[in-house]
Known about the structure:
Blueprint: H1 5-10, E1 17-21, H2 25-33, E2 38-41, H3 45-48, H4 60-71, E3 78-82, H5 92-104, E4 109-113, H6 119-127, E5 132-137, H7 143-146, H8 157-173, E6 177-181, H9 185-194, E7 199-202, E8 210-213, H10 215-218, H11 235-254
Parallel strand pairs: 1-2, 1-8, 2-3, 3-4, 4-5, 5-6, 6-7, 7-8
Helix pairs in contact: 6-8, 8-9
Amino acid sequence: MKVTTKTIRQAKRTKALVCLTAYDTVTARIASHGGADLLLVGDSVGNTILGFENSVSVTLDMMVHHTAAVARFKTDALLVADVPFGVAHDDFPGVLHACTRLLQAGADGVKIEGGTALAPVIARLVAAGVPVCGHVGLQPQQVRQLGGYKKFGAKDSAEFESVQADALAVERAGVFAIVGEMLAPALARAIRDALEVPLIGIGSGPDCDGQILVIHDLLGLTENPPGFAKPFAELGVAAVQAVAAWAATVRDTSAR
């Protein structure tokens, strides 16, 4: 049965949501067959697949390309695509056009990084028929401004309250779920309990309504995964060993 935004909303307090990134038909197939409820075509495609240092270099055209590739798998999971760097801060017709392109490429909804400041834009998108997933806490698109990656709400009470206010603002704007990235466990718990929509955590501890990971981190295909992303396989090592074994066979055969 196809997962919808309504399904995701109804999972609050009833079912732990399993969410993974996907960037093409192969990762979509693996994540779907593994039981993912939601697939995110993340702008993490930049540093995971395309060789960029971070997600800032990812363009809308790139996101449309990878969203269409994932959508071709015809997954039953909800398919959400990231709105890339800078686009959500464009004038509204520009934002709506970008979201329209992602939906027409096959996405069921979009994810937008940002809190209180972007709540009015999110509300207008929802009113226009665009399903939106929020994203608070660490916002990777702000990495250059932040100067790196950090945990939010661990020591600073003002930061704790600010992130919580961001989550409540985007919920009021009409999001169907919120990703909370790199939240201190106490902050994640407070936000989860305050929301009527699911909080999907990444690097935010267990007290969330679901979890999301980059699929390459989960499968052991990332050389230096974040500390919170425990690999459940070592496919990178296995792949190198397979190539080395095949190479040795080719060389041995050719030498005869």
